[in-house]
Fold:
Amino acid sequence: RKVAVLDYVEPSPQGTKWGLGGTCVNVGCIPKKLMHQAALLGSALKDAQHYGWNIAQPVHHTWSLMAQAVQNYVKSLNWGHRVQLQDKKVKYFNMKGSFSDPYTIRGLTKAGKETVVTAENIVIATGGRPKYPTHIAGALEYGITIYISLTEASPDVSLECAGFLTGIGLDTTVMMRSIPLRGFDQQMASLVTEHMESYGTKFLKRCFPTKVEKLESNRLQVTWKNTDLGTEETDSFDTVMWAVGRAPDTEALNLEAVGVKTNSETGKIVVDASEATSVPHIYAIGDITEGRPELTPTAIAAGKLLAQRLFGQSSELMDYDNVYHAYYKPLEFTVAERDATQCYMKVVCLREREQRILGLHFIGPNAGEVIQGFALGIKCGATYPQLMKTIGIHPTCAEEITKLHITKRSGLDATVTGC
Structure:
């Protein structure tokens, strides 16, 4: 069968655009992880002197060099995706597509050239775009979101962004309307924000912005209300970044004309277990779908299974249960001369019968790498007794999970004092 891809990036309000690969590759997970690593390298340099390395202080970070390294790597991934499409004989159209009828897509290039593509099956995977709080004066004109040029020193979302910006030496403030890391265990979220505060990140808690103004100095003056004190406050910043959620990129698709149903509140496309929309031959995967995790690996897995079903190679459906997520914040070992004690882990399991594990939380070095391995066990129905019978790999951080024996109900101190 013939396969084609229509790929197009609508520039952000600040004019930012990018190459093939979507949010994750270009302005999301990949640059975020690289900048997180840059912050960790800075911390390692500071710690090195306590282990015999003679490094001149203070250590300085050059944003432009990091930005260039990140951009070069992202461009290599863009090229890799193009090569893969070519190798698989997938026709690539750099066009913005919309439905003309249930089997026809109208594509427009940046220059306005039109191409019409017809297909037996159509898969929508346009993802989401960051929201702007347009009710706040100056938000659209002066604020940025995830989609911004790296040269302006303003990368990813909220706490993750604040973490690595602080880590590379920038003065960073986070304004929170309510709780941090919504959707995460709040005990763990509090430990993260406490560490970030000790690390140098400032927090304005229970505050919300009301307007952004540009000063003659080109700095941005933000006015906000403090709900606890009932006061109005102001301060000036070099950059203001909004991290208030994402919206599905559906507006330009003309879904109504072909009968594809969306959730009236979220705007996301309603799909069944096979990823089919209300129009049987039109499918949707990824962030654009209602009720699915907004995670790149989830969308990739769903897309692979959908392709196999469409080509008659399999009937397997995507299993969306127990999908795990990592949050990146420069949080590493407590070393000599550094007072950082927020590393923490806990297992949540049933108290009765086999004590099946329901969840696992880990704050510490390489948390994503650690959880990835345990995710398989939880997916397979691992129990607490099985975890306790697992022999840890020593010396590692992950082995501490196999030693967890103090319950929260006991009230005992869970601090680890030996290896």
Notes: The first strand starts at residue 4 and ends at 6. The CA atoms of residues 38 and 66 lie 8 Å apart. Confidence is low (pLDDT under 50) at residues 147-156, 332-337. The two ends are 58 Å apart (CA to CA).
